[in-house]
Amino acid sequence: MVDLLHGGALEAAAWKIKNLPDYEARLERAARRLDALGRGPAALKIYETALMASGRPVEEVREKVRAFEETFEDDEEEMTIPRASGIMNVEDDSWFFGDERIRVMTGRLLGQFQHRVTQYNYVDENEVLRRWADGYDTRLFIRRRIHETEPIAGVVPGFELPLIQYLRVAAGGDTLVPTPGMARVLMSLGAVGEGEASDDYAVLGAAEGLALRLELPAPIAGEILNDLARGDNLEFPEPPAEVAEEPEGEAADEATGEVIGTGGTDSEEAKPSPDDRAARRAARNNAERGEEPTRVQDPHAKDAPGTKEEEGEKPEAAAPQAGPEDAPGSE
To answer: What is the pLDDT of residues 214-247, one digit of tens each?
Structure first.
């Protein structure tokens, strides 16, 4: 299905952000912040994401992850998912801010992704994590608002949409994490309504659509929105009236978030002239008369052009006649 609801509003919102006087500086800051997030072994990305369930600031969470990495660093053995699981099984809850719930969540997530690594015949763990983050199936579960049935992270109790999105971004996925600050900025930009600002799915969809129109990776666009949310002044320049008009065909598929009709040269293709339209009508009429089928079809199909069934009774096939050599008793 195609969602055309916020098309023009997102075009206007993208124009407002691009025309901010400090847009380039915000873009650079967003890129620097994301650079630190995507580094490190897959096991530590999963661990960091689970720790975010504590509600503590991201700086405090990353400090805990760095301490864990330094404490158990081994030049001869990498911090793989199985090794991290083994360490966490024997260590106390201090590595989880004293929260048994986070400890259990971390163990289950590590187990789920270790199972995925074996399914991929032990491909690099970070690559397995990235494939999950950007996979079609994962995006489909999120877009259809059924993340709790997603086969990997979605089946872990307490691992809600914001945490799933945090892990997808950390793994290198082209998505973002919906936040209240981001929702407030999108509402100020006119990209979401007041009733949608409390809906993480609506905020996620609008922010990803805005990233497409900004021609930026979704994580970068998300950081820019969060950067704007940290400021006190949410005033934006007003775009010309024509900017708010959504070009034909630029609609987002709500199942995958992909834009329909904007890839390649679709958006640059000129509209057909009256002569072209007349020629196409003539071709269709010829096809209806059976002169020139417009597509390959089953010749036995009832709706195939130029293959109407003949009226009258169909002759029955005659029984095969037996020859002398087939007669009973012949040798």
So the answer is: 999 999 999 999 999 998 777 888 888 776 555 5
* CB 163 within 8 Å of CB 53: yes
What distance in Å separates the CA atoms of residue 212 and residue 10, rounded to the nearest whole number? 9
Query: Which residue type does 125 have?
Result: E
For CA atoms 105, 169, 32, 27, the dihedral sign is negative
SS3 of 272, please? coil
Could you tell me which residues are beta bridge partners of residue 259?
252
Q: Give yes or no for a contact between 107 and 46, defined as CB atoms under 8 angstroms apart.
A: no
Q: Phi and psi dihedrals of 131, rounded to 5?
A: -65, -40
For 78-128, how does the pLDDT look when each residue is reduced to its tens digit (9 = 90+)?
A: 999 999 999 999 999 999 999 999 999 999 999 999 999 998 887 899 999
Residue whose entry in the numeric block shows the structure tokens 């098309």: 7
CA-to-CA distance for 331 and 327, rounded, in angstroms? 9
Domain boundaries, the chain: 2-31+179-260, 39-170
Place of tokens 């994580």: 219
